[in-house]
Amino acid sequence: MREDPMMGEGRSDTGRVPPGALVDPWTYREPASRLIGEALVDRFAWDRLAYLGDAFGHRMNGTPGQQLSIDWALAQMRADGLENVRPESAKVPKWIRGAERVTLLDPYPRDLVMVGYGNSVGTGPEGIVADAIVVRSFEELEARRAEVPGKIVVFSPVWRQFPHDESWENYLALRHFRISGHARAAEFGAVAVLLRSIYKPHARQAHTGSLKYQDGIRRIPSAALAPEDALMLDRIDARGGRIRLRLEMNARDEGWVDSANVVGEIVGRERPDEVIVLACQYDSWDNGTSSLDDGCGAIVVWEAVRLMKKLGLRPRRTVRTVLFTNEENGCTGGMAYRDLHRAQLHNHVAMLEADSGVLPPMHFRASGTDETIATVTAIGRLVETLGMGPVATPVRIGTAEDIHPSVEAGDIPSLTLQGNNEPYSAYHHAHSDMVEAVPPVELARAVAAVTVMSYVLAEMPQRLPPGKGQGARGTSDE
Question: Could you give the domains of the chain?
Answer without folding.
Answer: 18-95+255-477 (3.40.630.10), 98-250 (3.50.30.30)
